[in-house]
Design a protein that fits this description.
With 508 residues, the chain is of the alpha+beta class. It has helices spanning 3-31, 62-73, 92-101, 128-138, 144-170, 177-192, 207-216, 225-231, 233-244, 247-264, 273-283, 298-316, 318-333, 335-352, 357-360, 364-376, 408-412, 455-472, and strands at 76-81, 84-89, 174-176, 285-288, 291-294, 382-386, 391-393, 396-398, 403-407, 473-476, 486-487, 497-498, 501-506. Helices cover 50% and strands 10% of the residues. Strand 1 and strand 2 (84-89) form a beta hairpin. The mean pLDDT is 91. It binds protoporphyrin IX containing FE. Protoporphyrin IX containing FE (HEM) binds at residues 123-124, 135, 311-312, 315-316, 319-320, 323, 379-380, 383, 444-447, 450-454, 457-458.
C-alpha cells in the first residue's frame, strides 16, 4: 500500500485522534486550576469547565445561596468564577488577615479597568497608588465639620419626605418603603453631592430620578449574559464600557461639568460635595524631584471630582435606601424596639431642641438598631478583593490574581458569632454586650483601608431620616408585609428587598 492510500484508509482515525486530543487539551486548559483548593484540602462545590461554580447564579437568591454554601462546606470554601479560584471566607481570623493585617497583598478589586474618561477615575475601579492618592485626597470631605453641614441638607430632604408620608398616612395608611426611601436617597445625593434641589420629589418625569433609575438596574444582571462578564473579564471591559457610556451616564457628567463651570464664576459657598471635594483634591500634593507639587492639574482635579460624584450616586442611593427599608420593616415587626427608639428620640429632641447633627451624635440606641438591621440585611451581599502578591494567609496559600470573597449574609448569620442569629436583637450591640462580638464578623461597610468611604455620610443620613420619621409616625405590619424580608433573585450588587410594604400611622 502506498502512503496516500494508507492515509486515505486512516483518515477517519486521524480525525478522531486530532479531535479528541484537541478536546482533551482544551478540557485540561479549562480545568487546570480546578485542583487548586483540593490540593490544599479546602472543600467546595465541584466546578465545571467554562463556568466554574457560577452556573445558574443569575437566578439565585444570593443571601440564601451564600448561606447554604457556607453551611455545607464550612468557613473557608474553594469556589471558582469560571476558572479563576475565588476563596470564600467567613472565618473572622482569616478576614482580619486579608482585609487588615496583610492589606498590602489585597489592595485592589477585580480588574475591570475601564478606559473611558471619568469612569476610569471611579474610586472603586482605581488600583494601587492611584487608588491610594484619590482615596486620601477625598477623605477630608467626610470630616465631622463637613458632615455637619451636609446634615442640614439631609434634614431638609427628610422634611420633604415627611410631607409625602403625611399624605400617605392619611390616605392609604401603608407605604412601599423601598420606593419611598429610594426617592429620599436620590434627593439626598442630588442635594449633598450635585448641589441640586428636586422640588417635585418622586415625580416620574423628573430627569434626575429617571436617569438614576436606569443607571442602577442594568437588566443584564438577571440573565446568563452576566456569567460571560465574570468569566471573561476582557469582555467585561469591552461590554462594560458600552454599558456605561450611555446617555444616562452622560446626563450626570454634563450636569457636573456645568456645575463646576458655574461655581468657578461665583464666590458663593455651597458646602456640598462638589465644592469641598474640589478644594480637598486641589490641595493634595505629591513629591517630584524633592519638590512638593499639586498631584493633579485642573482638568485632572475636575475629572476626579466628577467621577466620585457619579460614583456616589451609584454607591450611595440603593445601599442607603435598602437599609432604611429594612429598618422600618424590622421596627414594624418589633414594636417594643420601635417604642423604645421613639422614646429615646423624643427625650433627645427635648434635650437638643430639634433633630440635628449634635442630637444624633453619641446616641447609642439608634446605632444599636441600625447595626442590627445591617447585620440581618447587609446591603451588599458580598465584599471581594484581589490578591496582588502570593501569600500564605492563616495557613492558606493565596496566589497572585486570585479573588477572596466574604459572603456577608453567611458571615452575619453564623451562630458561632451571633447566637440565635435570625432574631432581631439590637441589644447585641449594647455597650455591655458589644465586647462579646468579634469585629471581623461584621462587614456591612467592608473592612480595612478599602472599606466604604461613604460610611459616615450614610450613617448620618440614615439616623437623621429615622429620627425625623419615627418621632411622628408609627410603623406596623399589614397584610402584604411578609414575616421575614424577601430579596430579589439575581446577581445584584445591592440586595433589593421585595414586598417591602408596611403600615404607617401618625402618632397622636
Ligand atoms: C448603608 C449604606 C452603605 C453601605 C451598606 C455601603 C457598603 C459598602 C461596601 C460593603 C463597600 C465595599 C467595601 C470593601 O470592599 O471593603 C463600599 C464601598 C464604597 N462605598 Fe459604600 N455603602 C453605603 C453607602 C455609601 C455612600 C452613601 C457612599 C457615597 C456617598 C458610598 C461610597 C462608596 C465608595 C466610593 C466605595 C468604594 C471605596 C474604595 O474603593 O475605596 N457608600 N460601600
Amino acid at each position: 500500500m502506498d502512503v496516500s492510500s494508507a492515509l486515505q484508509v486512516n483518515l477517519p482515525v486521524i480525525w478522531v485522534l486530532i479531535t479528541t486530543s484537541t478536546a482533551y487539551a482544551i478540557y485540561r486548559y479549562l480545568t487546570s486550576s480546578f485542583s487548586y483548593f483540593s490540593d490544599q484540602g479546602i472543600p467546595g462545590p465541584k466546578p465545571w469547565p467554562l463556568v466554574g461554580n457560577m452556573w445558574g447564579i443569575w437566578k439565585a437568591n444570593l443571601p440564601k445561596y451564600d448561606q447554604q454554601m457556607m453551611k455545607k462546606y464550612g468557613k473557608i470554601v474553594g469556589y471558582f468564577d469560571g476558572s479563576l479560584p475565588n476563596l470564600w471566607i467567613t472565618d473572622a481570623n482569616m478576614i482580619r488577615s486579608v482585609f487588615v493585617k496583610d492589606f498590602d497583598h489585597f489592595v485592589n478589586r477585580r480588574d475591570i479597568s475601564l478606559k473611558t474618561r471619568v469612569i476610569r477615575k471611579f474610586l472603586t475601579m482605581m488600583r494601587d497608588q492611584d487608588w491610594k492618592d484619590v482615596r486620601s485626597s477625598i477623605t477630608p470631605v467626610f470630616t465631622t465639620d463637613k458632615i455637619r453641614r451636609m446634615s442640614l441638607m439631609m434634614k431638609d430632604c427628610a422634611d420633604q419626605l415627611v410631607v409625602k408620608f403625611d399624605h400617605i398616612a392619611k390616605s392609604e395608611g401603608k407605604i412601599d418603603a423601598r420606593a419611598q426611601f429610594s426617592i429620599f436617597t436620590v434627593n439626598v445625593i442630588a442635594r449633598c453631592v450635585f448641589g441640586m434641589k428636586i422640588e417635585n420629589l418622586g415625580a416620574e418625569d423628573d430627569p434626575f430620578l429617571r436617569n438614576a433609575k436606569v443607571l442602577f438596574n442594568p437588566p443584564v444582571s438577571k440573565t446568563p449574559l452576566i456569567l460571560i462578564l465574570f468569566i471573561y473579564p476582557k469582555l467585561l471591559r469591552t461590554i462594560g464600557e458600552r454599558m456605561f457610556i450611555q446617555k444616562e451616564f452622560q446626563y450626570f457628567t454634563y450636569l457636573l461639568e456645568n456645575l463646576i463651570k458655574e461655581r468657578e464664576e461665583t464666590k458663593q459657598k455651597f458646602y456640598d460635595f462638589v465644592e469641598t471635594a474640589k478644594e480637598a483634591i486641589s490641595q493634595y500634593t505629591k513629591q517630584v524631584n524633592g519638590e512638593t507639587v499639586p498631584a493633579w492639574n485642573k482638568d485632572g482635579v475636575d475629572e476626579i471630582v466628577i467621577a466620585q460624584a457619579v460614583l456616589f450616586l451609584l454607591a450611595g442611593i440603593d445601599t442607603t435606601a435598602t437599609t432604611l427599608t429594612n429598618s422600618v420593616f424590622q421596627l414594624a415587626g418589633n414594636p417594643d424596639v420601635q417604642e423604645k427608639l421613639h422614646d429615646e428620640i423624643n427625650s433627645r429632641i427635648e434635650q437638643f431642641g430639634e433633630v440635628n447633627h449634635e442630637m444624633i451624635l453619641d446616641f447609642p440606641y439608634i446605632d444599636q438598631v441600625i447595626h442590627e438591621v445591617m447585620r440581618l440585611s447587609p446591603a451588599l451581599p458580598s465584599v471581594e478583593i484581589v490578591c496582588n502578591k502570593d501569600i500564605i494567609a492563616n495557613g492558606v496559600y493565596i496566589k497572585k490574581g486570585m479573588l477572596v470573597t466574604v459572603p456577608t449574609y453567611a458571615l452575619h448569620y453564623d451562630p458561632d458569632y451571633y447566637p440565635d442569629p435570625f432574631k432581631f436583637n439590637p441589644d447585641r450591640w449594647s455597650p455591655e454586650n458589644k465586647s462579646n462580638l468579634n469585629p471581623y464578623a461584621y462587614m456591612p461597610f467592608g473592612r480595612g483601608p478599602r472599606n466604604c468611604v461613604g460610611m459616615r455620610f450614610a450613617m448620618e443620613e440614615m439616623k437623621i431620616a429615622l429620627c425625623i420619621i419615627l418621632k411622628q409616625y408609627r410603623f406596623f405590619p399589614v397584610q402584604e408585609t411578609p414575616d421575614e424580608m424577601k430579596y430579589e433573585d439575581g446577581l445584584l450588587s445591592v440586595v433589593q428587598p421585595v414586598f417591602a410594604t408596611v403600615g404607617i400611622e401618625l402618632r397622636q
